[in-house]
Design goal:
The protein has a single domain, classed as UDP-N-acetylmuramoyl-L-alanine:D-glutamate ligase, CATH 3.40.1190.20. The protein is 34% helix and 24% strand. It has 10 helices and 13 strands. A 9-stranded mixed beta sheet has the order 5-4-1-8-9-10-11-12-13, sandwiched between helices. Strands 3-2-6-7 form a 4-stranded mixed beta sheet. Strand 9, helix 5 and strand 10 form a beta-alpha-beta unit. The longest helix has 16 residues. The protein is globular, with a radius of gyration of 18 Å. It starts with a strand and ends with a helix. Bound molecules: alpha-D-ribofuranose. Alpha-D-ribofuranose binds next to strand 2, helix 1, strand 7 and helix 8.
């Protein structure tokens, strides 16, 4: 039995580090350029595997050189890539600007991720045999919905990161056990900018919500209980790319290990705090020993 299945994207992140991000129409001179494996799905898979999870990645890379590098990166972190297909054409890429505060802006070009429109019998069986399924919104919605439905029908718990944010069909949310938006995504989905109000609203659609609040920690809310805010460790961020994915991947491991929710959230927050102190998405994700030490 695979513990954690991830149905999601794999991108090569092309990252420009600059003191100040350019406005539209403006050119600025940056500090450094890095090519780092990323993609919300692959990031969550790497975070979960490094945190000690038994992780399977479902998705697609292209038959370009990035595809081989992305697959190898996942495997080095211990992720099973047996259901990560190689398709004709370019891999997904993410074009990222990180400013002097560590904040980022991202344009994703789906490439191979866009070919994952439906699941085959192998993918469905893997999801049905997992304990938890992690989903994001960088694959076509048809595949995300099919994955969530397959999991739900088999009693497999699902965690959805609604990013990049878009209107979510009720058919999808009906199959989600835990929704993990950041505060901007929560506001977009609920219409409320106040995280507590957003959480209350979203609880009308899913049984539990964690709204991530960056350096301010997160807000956890489950049906029938009052929302509770959990702080994040105080650290100096150099690159926040992938912090949310680290949070979700490590949270999944803690939940699969049946840790109580407050402990699971604290563990995930420690992992995300370690991630933001180093550059790059998957490259910056901590291993279990580091999280335990933190
Ligand atoms: O969540 C961070 C990720 O978003 C990056 O790694 C990039 O690939 C985009 O998908």
């Amino acid at each position: 039995m695979t513990g954690i299945a991830v149905l999601g994207s794999t991108n090569m992140d092309l990252v420009a580090y600059t003191e100040r991000a350019p406005r539209l129409g403006e050119t600025v001179t940056g500090r450094e350029f890095r090519t780092v494996p990323g993609g919300k799905g692959a990031n969550q898979a790497v975070a979960a595997a490094r945190a000690g999870g038994d992780v399977l990645m479902i998705g697609a890379v292209g038959d370009d050189p990035y595809g081989d590098l992305l697959r190898a990166g996942l495997e080095r972190s211990g992720v099973d890539t047996g259901l990560l297909h190689t398709v004709e054409g370019p891999s997904g890429t993410a074009h990222i600007v990180v400013d002097g505060t560590g904040a980022n802006a991202i344009v994703v070009i789906p490439g191979a991720n866009g070919t994952v429109t439906a699941l085959g019998p192998g993918e469905m069986a893997a999801i049905a045999g997992a304990e938890l399924l992690l989903l994001q919104l960088e694959l076509p919605l048809s595949a995300v919905i099919e994955g969530a439905r397959t999991a739900h029908a088999q009693g497999v718990r699902t965690i959805l990161t609604p990013s990049p944010v878009q209107p979510l069909p009720p058919g999808l949310l009906d199959c989600v056990d835990l929704l993990v938006p950041n505060e901007h995504e929560a506001a977009e989905l609920s219409g409320f900018t106040d995280p507590r109000a957003a959480a209350q609203h979203l609880l009308g659609r899913v049984p539990a919500v964690v709204i991530t609040l960056g350096a301010r920690g997160c807000l956890y809310a489950a049906r029938g209980t009052d929302p509770v805010r959990f702080p994040a460790p105080e650290v100096t961020a150099v690159d926040t790319t992938g912090a949310g994915d680290t949070f979700v991947g490590t949270l999944a491991v803690a939940l699969a290990e049946r840790r109580p929710v407050p402990k699971a959230l604290a563990w995930a927050a420690s992992a995300a705090a370690l991630c933001v102190q180093r550059p790059g998405a998957s490259a910056s994700m901590p291993y279990r020993t580091e999280i335990e030490a933190a």
